Amino acid sequence: MEQLFQKIGKIKYEGSDSKNPLAFKYYNPEEVVYKKPMKEHLRFAMSYWHTLTGTGMDPFGAGTNIRSWDKLSGMELAKKRADIGFQFMEALGIEYYCFHDVDVAPEGETLKETLQNIDEMADYLEKLQKQTGIKLLWATSNMFSHPRFVHGAATSCNADVFAYCGAKVKKMLEITKRLGGENYVFWGGREGYETLLNTDSKLEMDNLARFLRMAVDYAEKIGFKGQFLIEPKPKEPTKHQYDFDVATVIGFLRNYGLEKHFKMNIEANHATLAGHTFQHELNMARINGILGSIDANQGDLLLGWDTDQFPTNIYDAALAMYEVLKNGGLAPGGLNFDAKVRRASFEMEDLFYAYIAGMDTFAKGLKVAAKLLEDGVFETMIEKRYESYTVGIGKDIVEGKIGFEKLAAYALKNDQIKNTSGKQEYLESLLNQYIYEVK
Q1: Residue 109, exposed/middle/buried by CB under 10 A (0-12, 13-18, 19+)?
Q2: CB atoms < 10 A from the CB of 204, how many?
Q3: What helix, strand, coil percent values describe the chain, rounded to 5?
Q4: pTM for this model (two decimals)
């Protein structure tokens, strides 16, 4: 097997004073933070699609990436990408990967041929996993790229498309189980609509629920014990997505009695496209007990589309890991770098710079979040702010012992209300201080 990264070698931790661009400054996998090694908190995963199949194209231009496998095609190309991907993960010390079906195997002229290609590549991936010890974090099926999904997948107006999607997900659940995948993700890239003038939205959402129920039933039938994840996504590509954000998905799951079977895979760039912060979406998932995994990236706030940039914002990473630690961790989920290098960063070495930056960003964020929690910085302030609900009338409200009549009687006697400052600026300054000081 060609060793593509011999000159780069294995990326090592050299500490924050290192000037080596091909070394970790903060990610030290065995360093114990908040009672666990860093690698167990972060559970980094490589995104197969952006890392190995991405060409560098964007909505306005053709691909620019220079890749040694560009001259290959078919199954030869698929196996070459797998070889390179596992070498890449070994060089970075990444222990997990994620993929869509069409990332690892080419589509055939028929569905039967496509499924055969996936089976053949599963054999190959299984061999590479055994050789390297690298594991599958999650898999999924691409039900958005091909023209057959023009009207959606499980929400398509065409029942033949619904059936086709069922065949793909059936196969991918079998493959995920076989490869020891710890999760299976549903990413509804085209599960939405452009106009209600031609849309039966109730039927579409009912069908989506039926599809998810079928997946749950089939997983139980074949003994797949992995965690099911739904990845909320707003807007792009359809105007109205049925999985717009965490709150929308929670409402959908509860409406159809599916809430016990699914958790959330939260993507940072999707959060901002929905008009939320990354922390908001993580928080909404955490407090509802459904935070399962993370697609780690960031968007460009000056652009209104999914730019999938590698995460470098320490502020966002610290607040993200704060929610993760309060969640008790992500396992069996992890941090998948659903991110791609910029179109002008087209050399293989740029992939290393990008992953190192992303891994270091979340490692530093982890350390900041751990220190904040150990010192009880925000918890103390929050407890103080809501202390009126621990005594007197507030305690009665929380315990459900009171109604409007007693509230009105109380308010008539206590109408000279005095509020206290929320101290937002002080807390933001304190967060900055922790970010600056934690090494």
Answers
A1: exposed
A2: 20
A3: 50, 10, 40
A4: 0.96
Q: What positions carry a catalytic annotation? A: 100, 103
Instruction: Tell me which residue of 104, 113, 232 sits closest to 167, measured CA to CA.
Output: 113
d(CA 411, CA 393): 10
Query: Which residues lie below 8 Å from residue 201, measured CB to CB, with a gap of 6+?
Result: 193
**What's the CA gap between 33 and 24, in Å, rounded?**
16
Instruction: With a cut of 70, say whether residue 53 has pLDDT above it.
Output: yes
pLDDT exceeds 80 at position 4: no
Q: What was the pLDDT predicted at 230?
A: 98
Residue 2 has pLDDT above 80, yes or no: no
Q: What is the H or E stretch that residue 361 is in?
A: helix 348-375
Give the DSSP letter string of 148-200.
GGTT-STT-S-HHHHHHHHHHHHHHHHHHHHTT-SEEEE--TT-EES-GGG--
Specify the DSSP class assigned to residue 297.
-
Reply yes or no on whether the pLDDT at 6 is more than 80.
no
H or E stretch covering 263: strand 262-267
The CA radius of gyration of the chain, in Å to the nearest whole number, is 24
C-alpha to C-alpha distance for 32 and 41, rounded to whole angstroms: 10
Q: Quickly tell me which residue has 């360093």 as its tokens.
A: 31
- Answer whether residue 292 shows pLDDT above 70: yes
Distant-in-sequence, close-in-space partners of 150: CB < 8 Å, separation ≥ 6:
190
Residues 92 and 39: their CA atoms lie apart, in Å, by 12
Alpha carbon of 380 to those of 232, 388, 421: distances in Å? 32, 14, 15
Q: Is 80 exceeded by the pLDDT of residue 3?
A: no
Checking phi first, is residue 400 left (phi over 0); if not, alpha (psi -120 to 50) or beta? left
Q: Cα separations (Å) of 127 from 83, 101, 102, 130?
A: 11, 17, 19, 5
Please say whether the beta carbons of 101 and 142 come within 8 A.
Answer: yes
* Structure token pair of residue 144: 């958005």
Contact 47, 96 (CB under 8 A): no
DSSP string, 312-347: --HHHHHHHHHHHHHTT--TT--EEE-----TT--S
CA distance 151 to 276: 27
Confidence of residue 412 (pLDDT cuts 50, 70, 90): very high
Least confident interval from 97-106, 130-139, 184-193, 212-221: 184-193
Does residue 4 sit in helix, strand or coil? coil
